[in-house]
Write a structure and sequence with these properties.
- This protein is α+β, with helices and mostly antiparallel strands.
- It folds into three domains: 115 residues, no CATH class; 141 residues, Copper type II, ascorbate-dependent monooxygenase, N-terminal domain (Jelly Rolls); 133 residues, Jelly Rolls (Sandwich), CATH 2.60.120.230.
- It is 17% helix and 33% strand.
- It has six helices and 22 strands.
- The strands form six sheets. It has a five-stranded mixed β-sheet, with no helix packed on it. A five-stranded antiparallel β-sheet has the order 6-3-9-5-7. A four-stranded antiparallel β-sheet has the order 13-22-16-19, with no helix packed on it.
- A hairpin with a 5-residue loop joins strand 17 and strand 18.
- Helix 4 packs antiparallel against helix 5.
- The N terminus is likely disordered.
- It binds heme C.
């Protein structure tokens, strides 16, 4: 009996194998579904990616390039090392998706039966979260000159609310999605941002690695392919009365035409009770100097959750500039066990994001968070801005560096007690 079983299995396996080899995946039934789901958020007309991946012809034409990018896992862009922390909206392809695409290309990228094509993916226009309570907008359009490459500019938007506001959701609308690479929003409760704006004249002021002042908080941000985010129930950002919001916009325009942008951020105020404030804890080291020529220079920082205060981390935002190569953040619990938070082993200043944890990470009192940032200040460093390399310290300029991670937290048991009127 046993022998018969084994033979039967072998035959079944063999038949499956033959069937698979004879019928590779086709564009119309399998590949298009992956492309709709995983690529079209950016690769469609008007979006930031340099070409569209909509039709069979679009994808077929680029198959060799796509094969490389998929195999190297450079596309879709997603920086966190898998298995080290767990995040919402991961753009990383599953092993099965990678296998399907590679098998399809290796089989000559057949179109298949058009009758099997799913309907085109429709992307919503307008505010995905519905009519906003208030829209923050750049005071005037900003023109990014042709072939300007990377431009970092901060726009000052006064709010003029007479009382504190609790903001439960923010949706960003880049004005020109071809030019806008990412947006970060900072809160200024003083007059620093306005002074910087006056000093620059015109729309906005130049800013590379930060807004140019110590912000009193933030309102998250936007990067291609990341949708507006719901806060957990009862959690909101505080926008203090009279505060100014600074929109830091990273533009990238290598094209032959000037591009004009007017980015907006829609605020949705809390409509139900708020008990916890969304806070952001910067963990940083600004007392470092990376020697010129140094290939792997480590900068560390740590922060310990204060006594008597348990917290949960909801998200994490690593930040370095052009020489950053690697950043690893861990939480060490009072019992000595270590929990990975995030690891980026191929840092790219162009692909920064606020990463939201799949589940809030408990940070009981006494937990130590460690950040290890690694910089490459050699002449061969991928994006070395200085030729020849020079010693580099903390600063906001293109040729300065930062070793910084923001951890978004809520404090357990916090009872702000804000109730809608
Ligand atoms: C989050 C946005 C985003 C997503 C999602 C995305 N791409 Fe891209 N892709 C880009 C951008 C932007 C570029 C231009 C190069 C750059 O900025 O890295 C690019 C470039 C490329 C290139 C050219 C790379 C080169 O340097 O020659 C290929 C091929 C590509 N993408 C394929 C894909 C495929 C296939 C998918 C889906 C499986 C995908 N991309 C998903 C944004 C995206």
């Amino acid at each position: 009996m046993k022998g018969v079983w084994a033979t039967g299995m072998l035959i079944a396996v063999a038949i499956c194998g033959v069937a698979q080899a004879a019928e590779p995946p086709t564009f119309s039934d399998e590949v298009v579904r992956i492309v709709q789901e995983r690529c079209q958020t950016c690769h469609r007309p008007g979006e930031h990616a340099p070409f569209s991946l909509i039709t069979y012809a679009d994808v077929y034409k680029r198959r060799a390039d796509i094969r490389d990018q998929i195999e190297w896992r450079t596309m879709p862009p997603w920086k966190p090392v898998p298995g080290f922390g767990s995040f919402l909206e991961s753009r990383r392809l599953s092993d099965a998706e990678v296998a399907t695409i590679l098998k399809w290309i290796d089989a000559g990228a057949p179109e298949g039966d058009r009758a099997k094509l799913p309907p085109p993916r429709v992307f919503p226009t307008g505010w995905a979260l519905g009519p906003p309570d208030h829209v923050l907008e750049m005071s005037a359009p900003y023109t990014v000159p042709a072939r300007a490459g990377d431009v970092y500019r901060c726009f000052v938007v006064p709010t003029n609310f007479p009382e504190d506001r609790w903001v439960s959701r923010v949706e960003y609308a880049p004005g020109d999605r071809k030019a806008v690479h990412h947006v970060l929003a900072y809160i200024d409760t003083g007059s620093a941002a306005q002074a910087l704006q006056r000093g620059a004249g015109g729309a906005g002021y130049p800013c590379f690695g930060g807004p140019g002042f110590l912000p009193a908080g933030g309102l998250g941000g936007w990067a291609p392919g990341i949708g507006p985010r719901e806060q957990p129930d009862g959690v909101a950002w505080l926008l203090p009365a009279g505060a100014t919001v600074v929109l830091q916009v990273h533009y990238n325009n290598s094209g032959p035409q000037a591009r004009t942008d007017r980015t907006q951020a829609a605020l949705y105020f809390a409509k139900s009770p708020i008990d916890k404030r969304h806070r952001s804890i910067p963990i940083l080291n600004h007392a470092f100097t990376i020697p010129a020529g140094e290939k792997r220079y480590e900068v560390r920082a740590a922060w310990t959750v204060p006594p008597g205060r348990d917290m949960h981390a909801t998200g994490i935002t690593p930040h370095m500039h052009l020489l950053g190569r690697d950043m690893k953040v861990t939480a060490t619990y009072p019992d000595g066990s270590v929990r990975p938070l995030i690891h980026i082993d191929d840092w790219d200043f162009h692909w920064q994001a606020n990463y939201t944890f799949a589940e809030p990470v408990p940070l009981p009192s006494g937990t130590r968070i460690d950040m290890v940032a690694v910089f490459d200040n050699s002449a061969e460093s991928k994006r070395q801005p200085s030729k020849p390399p020079r010693a580099v310290s903390w600063g906001e300029g293109t040729t300065d560096e930062m070793a910084l991670v923001f951890v978004s937290i809520t404090v357990d048991g916090e009872r702000i007690g804000w109730r809608p009127r």
